[in-house]
Amino acid sequence: MNFISQNKNKMNKSLILTRIKTSKGFKTDKELAEFLDIKSSTLSNWYSRNAIDFELVFTKCEDLNADYLIFGRGNKTQDSDIIMEPTSEYHKKSVRESELEYTVSVQKEYIELLKKEIKKEE
Questions:
Q1: CA dist 81 to 23, 51, 99, 112, Å?
Q2: Which residues have a Cβ under 8 Å from the Cβ of 78 and sit 6 or more positions away?
Q3: pTM score, two decimals?
Q4: Which of 23, 3, 113, 108 is nearest to 64 (CA)?
Q5: What is the pLDDT of residue 93?
Q6: What is d(CA 121, CA 70) in angstroms, rounded to the nearest whole number?
Q7: What is the per-residue pLDDT for 79?
Q8: How far out from the chain centre does Cα 15 lie?
Q9: Per-residue pLDDT at 30
Q10: In contact, 12 and 3? CB cutoff 8 Å
Q11: In angstroms, rounded to a whole number, what is the distance separating the alpha carbons of residues 66 and 16?
Q12: Which residues of the chain have pLDDT under 70?
């Protein structure tokens, strides 16, 4: 199954939901809905309408690699090997916080790009 649906030439958002479910070890859609803090009926609608709340998904999944979630490529989780033996707990924390802030900013930019693509398709 491709990221872009062959028939409609649209992004297959159920793959993103499936990748989250798999990465987090959830067995059921109910577990996924609880993790995302949405009703099961909302999740069901996302599947049937091929639509998701990207901002919510990326906020809840900031530990997961956006490339993996969207395209199915790369590591499932954000690279944590970037930190090279920090000398103090403060340094570890500040480096990790900087990485997370950068990741969130990149993901927000990507969400905006995806929103623009979706509007073009509509």
A1: 19, 33, 11, 28
A2: 62, 63, 64, 65, 99, 103
A3: 0.57
A4: 23
A5: 54
A6: 17
A7: 58
A8: 11
A9: 94
A10: yes
A11: 10
A12: 1-10, 78-96, 98-99, 102
> Do the Cβ atoms of 3 and 15 come closer than 8 Å?
yes
pLDDT at 108: 80
Tokens 């990741």, residue located? 103
User: What integer pLDDT is reported at residue 33 of this predicted model?
Assistant: 94
| Pick from 56, 46, 48, 63: nearest CA to 103 | 63
Q: Residue 100, SS3?
A: helix
- Contact between 18 and 61 under an 8 Å Cβ cutoff? The reply is no
**DSSP annotation string for 10-49:** SB-HHHHHHHHHHHHT--SHHHHHHHHT--HHHHHHHHHH
What pLDDT score does 74 carry?
A: 77
pLDDT recorded at residue 92: 52
- As a residue count, the chain comes to 122
Q: What Cα–Cα distance (Å) separates residue 58 from each residue in 41, 64, 89?
A: 20, 8, 27
Q: What are phi and psi of 62, to 5 degrees?
A: -65, -15
Which residues neighbour 110 within 8 Å (Cβ) at sequence distance 6 or greater?
Answer: 58, 66, 70
